[in-house]
Amino acid sequence: MKNFKYFEPRTIEEACHLLSRYKDKAKILAGGTDLLVQMKREAVDLRYLVNIKKIDNLNCILSQDNLLRIGALVTHKELIDSTVVEKDFSILKEACLAVGTVQIRNLGTLIGNICNASPSADTVPTFIALGAKLKIVSTRRERTVLVEDFFAAPFQTILEPDEMVTEVEIPYPTLNKCFVWGGCYSWLPKITTTDETLIGVAIFLEIALERGRLEQVRIALGSVAPTVMRARESEEFLVGNKIDAKVFQEGGQIAANEIAPRSRAEYRRHLAGVLVEKSLNLAAERALRSGQFEETN
Amino acid sequence: MKKLIRIVVNGKLFKVRVDYYRTLLEVLREDLHLTGTKNGCNEGECGACTVLLEGKAVYSCLILALDADGREITTIEGLLKEGKLDPLQQSFVEYGAIQCGFCTPGMILSAKALLEENPSPSEGEIKTALAGNLCRCTGYKKIVAAVLAASQRS
User: Fold this and answer.
1) ipTM of the complex, rounded to two decimals
2) Which residue from A23, A199, A63 is spatially nearest to A71, judged by alpha carbons?
3) CB 3.0-4.6 Å disulfide test: which of A92, A109, A204, B43 passes with A30?
4) CB contact under 8 A, A6 and B23
5) What's the whole-model pTM score?
6) Least CA distance to A36: which residue of chain B?
7) Handedness of CA A20, A25, A26, A27 (dihedral sign)
8) Percentage, residues of chain B above pLDDT 90
9) B62 touches chain A (CB under 8 A)
């Protein structure tokens, strides 16, 4: 922890040059809520510390080109307070409120949390359910990767040593009178409410109003596999099906059988079934409620 | 390697030469001799090191001192104004919300940040705001009561 060189780049280009020069000996400092803990435990070989907080334009939350764009320096607290997020993607706010404690949310960034790649990270399932993508830059190239494809293993991402994430982009679902969408993030803790997440469930679903059927369903589960996973068999079963309590119950059971937890498997499997079912019901309820607002306008 | 940092603590400007690796917590306690802020776990779990960074509650053990350069910090010492206790501090005393006192500075600052943002919190909101501050003595009931009473007074 003791001997490292310290840099405060003013632009993304400067930061990328530092990463390309020092590669995996360099670590990015944003909120620092994960990095400082690792430094104190000497769990990281830190030679070069790159503080990105002086870079302009990384702390924006923008609604632009049918995307919600969240910059790398946006903290959980900033997202929670954002009126744009409250209006357009309140499930993200719901997920952020599950992260850590007030003190962690005030300092820690969303993207820092994603890059830490914990299998139990609370915002990741929601980002995956919303089809979010990460913008990754380096001196060599720029690329966009689905959050879903970002994780290789617990605490390991697909980032190359010279790359950094600059923003996360969430596509706006198509809004028209025929379809409504709803979502939710539900979770249960291991012991206390500020403890690690035992299981996290994020749902995004789209309902075709006239037929009363599920047009699109995305179920993302956290802390039940080495990386956050989609319950694809459950999704396949649900799409095209009616909005029905029994359908949701079966969807929950199918999802429960898809998980691959490292520990407390029986309990997690039981919880997955219950939580997915409850969450599908809640998401559908929210979707239909949002449709009512449109009709009365 | 050292860096000269400028930090405003409780309204006063300090210039300190700090080693890169030292945390804000260490510098507040050892260089500025503001020992009200406590070191409990040193890894951002217990909340004893809580200070306000531009009004927001943060764990000072997770902030490098050089990262606090140019920032405004409030420690528990900053709540005493001209020898008078802050209403929150007064309430903690009256409600028996202090036993050993180790968690108290952090608790009060988290509560202070809450009341600045939300002057009439519910009990649930108080508990959420204080969830990042652990207390081994009181069982929390009197702490929550003290914060509620302080909010109702102002």
Assistant:
1) 0.97
2) A63
3) A109
4) no
5) 0.95
6) B62
7) positive
8) 98
9) yes
